[in-house]
Fold this sequence. Notes:
4% strand
Amino acid sequence: MIGSHGDDSVVSESGLVVILGNSFNIKQYACRNMADDVGVDEAFCTSCGTVIKKEAEICPECGTRQQESSKTTAAQIPDQRQYELEKITNKSTGVAITLGILLSPLGYIYLGKWGLGAINFLTLNYLLLGPIIVPIHCYKIMNDAEDELKRAGVEGY
Ligand SMILES: [Zn+2]
């Protein structure tokens, strides 16, 4: 009888400890949520609101996988930009490079880069390193355009 009574009090004691522990956690949680000064590389967990590293995929506090929405939004591009990029990626890499080698400004003009073509022509670069640099640059322009469309989540890239 005495033994069981003793057990009861131990249970209630530990119960109190648990309650105190919980209220402490809640206070800590509330303080963290009220903090507005989030570092540039920090973000709020989408589930529990804890300040976590921006690049963290999973919240170390609650284990919730973070949505990629912020990253996707950052990479999103306006329709006009998407149209221009698609115009470039729809061109033939082979033609761009061939034109770049034959007469370098044409490589740029083929990709719709009239400004670059004009500069290349006016600086007489097509007589110098143009046939080497322009094909590489044209290839890079097309690659970058495709990458940007990929990052923006445009279908088909
Ligand atoms: Zn969390």
